[in-house]
Amino acid sequence: MTLCKGKLLFQYFLNNHINHARYISFTQSNLSRYAKDYIDPIVDKEELSKPLDEYDTRRHRPVKAARTEETIMGDQAVQKFINILMRDGKKDVARNVIDQTFANIKRKQLERYHRAQTQDEKEKIELDPIKIFHQAYENCKPVLYTRTKVHGGFKYKVPCPCEGNTQSFKSMKFLITAAEEKDKKIRMWKRLSLEIIEASRNEGVAIRKKQNLHRECQANRAYSHFRWSK
User: Fold this and answer.
1) Which of 104, 113, 149, 229 is the most buried (most CB within 10 A)?
2) What is the residue extent of each domain of the chain?
3) For residue 126, what is the DSSP state?
4) Distance between CA 159 and CA 145 in Å, rounded?
5) Which GO terms describe its cellular component (predicted)?
6) Per-chain mean pLDDT for the chain
7) 86/75 Cα distance (integer angstroms)
8) Distance between CA 192 and CA 185 in Å, rounded?
9) What's the pLDDT tens digit per position in 118-176?
10) Domain 75-230 superfamily per CATH
11) CA distance 77 to 57
């Protein structure tokens, strides 16, 4: 009896609402508060110092307000690292972890600096945590990676060149994953700072992850021609 009632209600809904279906819009509304003619602000110091061309559209087009993290002293790679580290949309937590990570890197490097015996040893020690992060980030960038390709009903891991955003993402993901795999009793910012310092010297788990990925690409090089197959 309940099933019959359900069918009748469904039929009633179809008869009364099917004619109005053409008025239903499934297009996502634009939630931006800026019109399409607004452009993103320039926060790069070098870009700001360059003179604008006479016919440059930036002379007369309106500019969006800069975000909180978009400052002249900001770093795009660090902001991207924060976004990848973020969990459940808690960006403040991720930003706090990165701040503490850089502070711990600074402390560790200062300890090494004061323990150094000669001036030459001290000059070789980098004290800027941002530069250390960039060095680690560059060292972890893979040249190749594998993509799964189905061919003849079988799945193959096909080596592909790793460039652009994919290369940046994988490099940062190696650092974060390597830190997460360390002892869980240690705070995340401590684990991450140690991993970044090791990666800046071409050492550590993140570097081994990159090397393992390259070995996997080498082992599957026979399937590289599948890149061009449909």
Assistant:
1) 104
2) 39-74, 75-230
3) -
4) 6
5) ribonucleoprotein complex; ribosome
6) 85
7) 17
8) 13
9) 889 888 899 999 999 999 999 999 999 998 888 888 888 889 998 889 999 999 999 99
10) Ribosomal protein S7/S5 (1.10.455.10)
11) 27
